[in-house]
Amino acid sequence: xxxxxxxxxxxxxxxxxxxxxxxxxxxxxxxxxxxxxxxxxxxxxxxxxxxxxxxxxxxxxxxxxxxxxxxxxxxxxxxxxxxxxxxxxxxxxxxxxxxxxxxxxxxxxxxxxxxxxxxxxxxxxxxxxxxxxxxxxxxxxxxxxxxxxxxxxxxxxxxxxxxxxxxxxxxxxxxxxxxxxxxxxxxxxxxxxxxxxxxxxxxxxxxxxxxxxxxxxxxxxxxxxxxxxxxxxxxxxxxxxxxxxxxxxxxxxxxxxxxxxxxxxxxxxxxxxxxxxxxxxxxxxxxxxxxxxxxxxxxxxxxxxxxxxxxxxxxxxxxxxxxxxxxxxxxxxxxxxxxxxxxxxxxxxxxxxxxxxxxxxxxxxxxxxxxxxxxxxxxxxxxxxxxxxxxxxxxxxxxxxxxxxxxxxxxxxxxxxxxxxxxxxxxxxxxxxxxxxxxxxxxxxxxxxxxxxxxxxxxxxxxxxxxxxxxxxxxxxxxxxxxxxxxxxxxxxxxxxxxxxxxxxxxxxxxxxxxxxxxxxxxxxxxxxxxxxxxxxxxxxxxxxxxxxxxxxxxxxxxxxxxxxxxxxxxxxxxxxxxxxxxxxxxxxxxxxxxxxxxxxxxxxxxxxxxxxxxxxxxxxxxxxxxxxxxxxxxxxxx
Length: 639
What we know:
The protein has 18 helices and 25 strands. With about 650 residues, the chain is α+β, with helices and mostly antiparallel strands.
């Protein structure tokens, strides 16, 4: 009789294999049934396939590498996308899927908003509305743990963190994924700012900015805004010309202002034998230098502030500026006042108010939150033989260069903007340096054709002019490429040297009234450069300059808001200005005055004459926070 054990054993193995296959198939079916997708844009789909993915069609030109560059910011992620898609790199897939943690913030948000429309980032974590995903009521704690905490093993931890929700939460129940449990992709999303009541409690009540690494000094908080005085156009309720010591109510706030105006003008007005003046009554704790000179006249330089303070003290009959009684009437000559603090019937005030109305009517119509098609021209101030401001062991050129390198890196990694530079330090390249003390940028060159490196102090003026020549030629070349002028932004970054009592960031734009209609560069040395040969002289109409001032004003206000949200200190009085005052002379820096780029802003990151500000700019965490705030402002400006 033949031995039947061999065939029987084989049959048993086949049956066992069939059972295992059926079980695995059932698991696969169950897993598949726990998925879902939501169509988003351009053929993309936000998907739940266990974890969270964005499914993206692969273009014929560029293939998966082009997908990696656009959606993750780097072609180095190409292989990771192939693995996540379970596709061989040898094949050309029609579609790939990208894990949430690889996506740029713009596309990460696209996935989260599509799959979880009712969820929100909170100050204490992530708030998820149960059943709000494509899975609906079938959600489990393991699903939620995988999506938001990065691992299903966190399920029991999340369930314990939400004791009232229970093991099977009811549909539409809000559950919290605590901050400490969040997956990296969600932890990177900035929580909303604290409500005003908390913000007013001061820095001790605020959490440190998430951009600053643990253990690093936090950037100083923005000082509380002080009353800006009468701003905005005068409305029909403006009273007639005031008599001596008559108080005038302030007008409405500027368009887009992050801070509301004061309810009333703190100045009154009078006249004596020496002429017209404004009166400000000092409050407790206020100093003549900051509360009067800096605030109402716009004077910022240390020598200028001190000299004007002495003039005002003499006019007011003050013998000792260090012991002025509270409520003492300080007289400020009208000629020294900023126009917004003048009586609203004066010609200077009316001209200023008219300009504010016109600025408010200018609008940038190009919108793209990913900055696709936007070109950013970055200009690090000074360099080479020109060190810029120097105080407290810190010099301007090296530290603002590092900030600009961080801006460039953030723009290229997180957005689709194109970045052009005016200056290069060849031995450094554009790599940020995480050190408190930076080396002098003695080898810096202007990226004209040929490169320019000044060899004497007399050539530093040529260097300044070559910056705007280069930026203007960038702009004209971009226009020839068909780039809309609204999509180009010029930003020059500096650090100031002001009165030591002042702190915080300032933004300058080019006021139309402080610009010439035509300007040139001439001389033998200028003729060596392609950018000057292409065009030595420029001119603009008043209409063009007005539009440029309006666009620059809008972007500067966006910068104010982003710096405040990041906890970065702003100059306490009018942080955005359309001119500089030095030696009682008003002017606009050459890189702004001679720029033909409509949206042009100069950033003075901090005041190096103030020891605390100087210590901040030496901190790499602060320099990164400035760069991040800049990118945030640019995204909001184009959103």
